[in-house]
Design brief:
The chain is an alpha/beta fold. The chain contains 13 helices and 13 strands. The chain is globular. The longest helix is centred in the N-terminal third of the chain and has 21 residues, at 96-116. The chain starts with a strand and ends with a helix. Bound molecules: nicotinamide-adenine-dinucleotide and 2'deoxy-thymidine-5'-diphospho-alpha-D-glucose (DAU). 2'deoxy-thymidine-5'-diphospho-alpha-D-glucose (DAU) is lined by residues 86-88, 125-127, 181-182, 192-193, 196, 208-210, 215, 217, 252, 276, 283.
Length: 339
Amino acid sequence: MKTILVTGGAGFIGSNFVYYMLEKHPGWRVVCFDALTYAGNLETLEDAMKNEKFRFVKGDITDRKAVFSLFEEERFDFVVNFAAESHVDRSIEAPEIFLRTNILGTQVLLDACRKNNTRFHQVSTDEVYGDLPLDRPDLFFTEETPIHTSSPYSASKASADLLTMAYYRTYGLPVTISRCSNNYGPYHFPEKLIPLMIANALENKPLPVYGEGKNVRDWLYVRDHCKAIDMILENGRPGEVYNIGGHNERTNLEVVRTVLRILGKSEELIKFVKDRPGHDMRYAIDPTKIRNELGWYPETDFDTGIQKTVEWYLNNRSWWKNIISGDYVKYYERMYGKR
Ligand code: NAD
Ligand code: DAU
C-alpha cells in the first residue's frame, strides 16, 4: 500500500486525479491538501469523501507549519503538486498571489519532501515554453525547447520548475516534472475557455472570443493527463521532464463553434472582444518521450472528449451554476476588488 499526497486536489485536474487514483489503485491512501481558494470546491470531492482511503485536509501550501505538521502525521510515498493559481487572465490583473502560491508554495513542499526524502512530482505546463508561430505547423514543444515565458502565470510556473530541478541537482531529491497542454473535461472551472463557453451558451449569453479567435491550443482530455502522471510516478526517471499532449490542435474559434454545434445554439452568440495582453499564439506538444519511455498515449480524441464534456455540463448544471452565482466571485472580489 502507498500513500499519496495530492495538493490542489479540490480543483479541476487535481480532483480528476484523486478519482483516477482511487479507482486505479484501490489499496492506496489518497490525501488531498487544498486551501479551497475560489477555484477549489469540496462539492467536487463529495464522492471521494465516501471512500475510506481518502482524506481531505484544508490547508495552504505556503503555510510551512501546516505542511510540515501534515508530514509529521502521515508518511507519504509521493507528493503530486497541482496546487496553483492557474488562470492566465487573473495573473495579468494581479500577479502577486501567483508568485506566492506557485513559487513559494512549491518551495515549501520541496522542503518538506527533502526533510522526509519523499518523491515529488511537479505538475507544470506547456506555457513555460512560450508559444509557436501559426505559420510553422511543423514545430512542436519538446522537453529541450528553451523556457520562454509570456505571462506572470507562466513565469511563476517556470520558476517552480527551475526550483524543482535545483532540489534534484543540489539535494538529490527524487523529482519529476510533467508539462501538459490544455486540459478539458469534468469539473473544469467556468472561467476557462471550454466550460465558460458551454455555460454561457446554455444561458444564451455572449461567448467572448479574444482577438480573432485564431490562437491554437492542443487539447487533452483530463483523464489522459491523470493516466500520464500515474505512469510517471510508477516508471518515470527522477530528474526528468515529460511533456504530455495528444496532437489535438484547434483554433479557439473552432472550439467555440464545436460547442455551439453540439448544443444546437447559434453562432450569433459569438462576440469578438479585446485580445489578452501578450496572448500566446499556438501551443503544440511533442509527446514522443513519454510515449517511447513509458508507453503513454491519449485514449480520448477531441471529438469524443468534447461531446462527453458538454454532456457532463448538461448533466451537472447545479455544479457550475453554484459556482457562477456563488462564493468564488465574492472571494475574488474580497481579495482583488471588482473585476
Ligand atoms: P484549478 O485552478 O482548477 O485548481 C487549483 C487548486 O489549487 C484549487 O483547488 C485551489 O483551491 C488549490 N490551491 C490554490 N492555491 C493554493 C494554495 N496556496 N495552497 C493549497 N491549495 C491551493 O487548476 P487546474 O486547472 O486544475 O490546474 C492544476 C495544475 O495543473 C496547476 O498547477 C496548473 O498550473 C497545471 N496545469 C493546468 C492545465 C490546464 O489546462 N488546466 C494544463 C497544464 C498544467
Ligand atoms: O496550456 C496549459 C494552460 O492552459 C494551463 O497551464 C493553464 O493553467 C490553463 O488555464 C490553460 O491556459 P490558457 O490561457 O490556454 O487557457 P484559457 O482557457 O484561459 O484560454 C484558452 C484560449 O482561449 C486562450 O487562447 C485564450 C482564449 N479565451 C479564453 C477565455 C477565458 C478566449 O478567447 N475567451 C475567453 O473568455
